[in-house]
């Protein structure tokens, strides 16, 4: 197969990304593999890893190998378990390698479709903006579900672009399978198919195709729901009681947070790191840890806590909406991490550059070619604004911002309209 100039350009970008990956892992040890093996995993990664180990050793999704677990999606633990079955349990480096290779494969597939639907220039700039984001490198070197979700969303977007360009039932089913697998990894995707179905005319995709896509996705999800029905008597697609966390915290914040305090909270959490004078309801993690000091597992009593949180939200609904605006801001903040000041500044600068491109694309955002990516971003923003947002949650759709940013910069450089106004 003969490589074209766009193929060579993409290959060069991938090689640069791999060079940065090698430096991060083998020269600077930014993932902290030695520390992880010495001190253990932290945060969400503990449960993802425990679920994977239990799948291999006890052939059940559990944290302790005894009690079935429902409060997290099974998909990412299955992915980790598959890697461990080949490379050995707790081989975190193998997981990082596997999810990075999978991500780069999906980038190539996505770039090909963007090149067909848009142009080689837009596809190249999209790849540059995506692969140059330090947060994209960071997410590949963490045990977070967002890494695998990003790759699956790239595949879903590729299939959807192909579907809009050359409709076929094969692409409809492929897109449905991708989003169904995404649901098994990332529960927030559960409502995405019906959300897109509402906009079928705007997307100019036949209703029949979106309906089959949605059905396919839920068929892929169904074994997980059936397993939970058998074990606990409820489908628990997002966890049986995990929503208690978000409703409890949002209820407390709706009751006690006022004025500009949500934005002062963001400043303290992401910039100054100085909590002096801030409300005790600022930090999401601090608030829920006060209610569950020994960690959240999920028990029936938590449903009562969830209902009380929802009651408070309704009682203080205007303040809940005001607080939700700050969640939109938080969702779009840079995904900073444990890699130090240079990384954090670089991540902020690179993301700001992407956002500037998106602003330049505003005049053409509603054009047919761009609507799908706009809707993906809107879905994520709205969902997490109404529940709980953190910068890491924008990573599964960061490619949407990269593509729209590329459209903006292309317009700036060429003054060429990619679609009629």
List the helices and strands and how they pair.
Elements lengths: L4 H23 L5 H7 L4 H14 L17 H13 L4 H26 L2 H12 L2 H7 L4 H21 L3 H17 L6 H7 L1 H4 L3 H26 L10 H14 L4 H12 L11 H8 L10 H14 L1 H15 L9 H20 L7 H19 L11 H17 L7
Can you offer a commentary on this structure?
There is one protein chain. The mean pLDDT is 93. With 421 residues, the chain is an all-alpha fold. It has 20 helices and no strands.
Separation of termini?
Answer: 38 Å
Rg measurement, Å: 22 Å
> How would you spell out the order of helices and strands?
HHHHHHHHHHHHHHHHHHHH
Helical stretch count? 20
Q: Summary?
A:
The protein is mainly alpha-helical and 421 residues long.
From the structure above, extract its key features.
single chain, 421 residues, mainly alpha, 70% helix
């Amino acid at each position: 197969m003969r490589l074209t100039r766009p193929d060579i350009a993409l290959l060069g970008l991938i090689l640069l990304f791999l060079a940065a990956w090698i430096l991060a892992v083998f020269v600077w040890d930014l993932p902290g593999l030695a520390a992880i093996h010495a001190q253990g995993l932290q945060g969400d990664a503990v449960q993802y890893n425990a679920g994977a180990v239990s799948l291999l050793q006890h052939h059940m999704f559990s944290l302790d190998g005894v009690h079935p677990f429902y409060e997290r999606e099974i998909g990412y633990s299955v992915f980790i378990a598959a890697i461990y079955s080949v490379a050995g349990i707790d081989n975190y480096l193998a997981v990082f390698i596997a999810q990075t290779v999978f991500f780069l494969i999906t980038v190539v597939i996505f770039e090909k479709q963007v090149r067909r639907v848009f142009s080689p220039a837009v596809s190249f700039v999209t790849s540059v903006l995506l692969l140059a984001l330090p947060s994209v490198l960071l997410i590949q070197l963490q045990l977070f579900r967002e890494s695998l979700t990003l790759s699956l969303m790239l595949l879903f977007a590729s299939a959807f672009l192909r579907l809009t360009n050359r409709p076929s039932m094969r692409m409809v089913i492929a897109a449905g399978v991708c989003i169904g697998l995404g649901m098994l990894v990332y529960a927030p995707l559960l409502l995405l198919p019906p959300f897109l179905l509402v906009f079928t005319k705007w997307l100019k995709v036949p209703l029949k195709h979106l309906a089959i896509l949605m059905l396919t996705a839920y068929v892929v999800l169904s074994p997980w729901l059936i397993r939970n029905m058998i074990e606990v008597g409820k489908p628990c697609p997002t966890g049986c009681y995990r929503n208690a966390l978000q409703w409890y915290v949002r209820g407390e914040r709706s009751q006690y947070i006022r004025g500009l305090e949500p934005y002062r909270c963001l400043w303290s959490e992401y910039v100054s790191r100085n909590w002096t004078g801030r409300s005790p309801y600022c930090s999401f993690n601090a608030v829920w840890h006060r209610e569950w000091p020994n960690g959240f597992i999920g028990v029936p009593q938590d449903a009562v806590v969830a209902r009380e949180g929802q009651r408070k939200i309704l009682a203080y609904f205007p303040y809940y909406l005001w607080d939700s605006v700050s969640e939109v801001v938080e969702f779009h903040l840079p995904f900073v991490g444990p890699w130090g000041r240079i990384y954090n500044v670089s991540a902020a600068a690179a993301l700001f550059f992407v956002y500037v491109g998106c602003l330049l694309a505003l005049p053409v955002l509603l054009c047919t070619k761009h609507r799908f990516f706009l809707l993906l971003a809107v879905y994520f923003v709205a969902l997490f604004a109404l529940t709980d947002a953190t910068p890491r949650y924008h990573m599964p759709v960061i490619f949407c911002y990269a593509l729209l940013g590329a459209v903006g910069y292309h317009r700036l450089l060429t003054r060429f309209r990619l679609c009629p106004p």
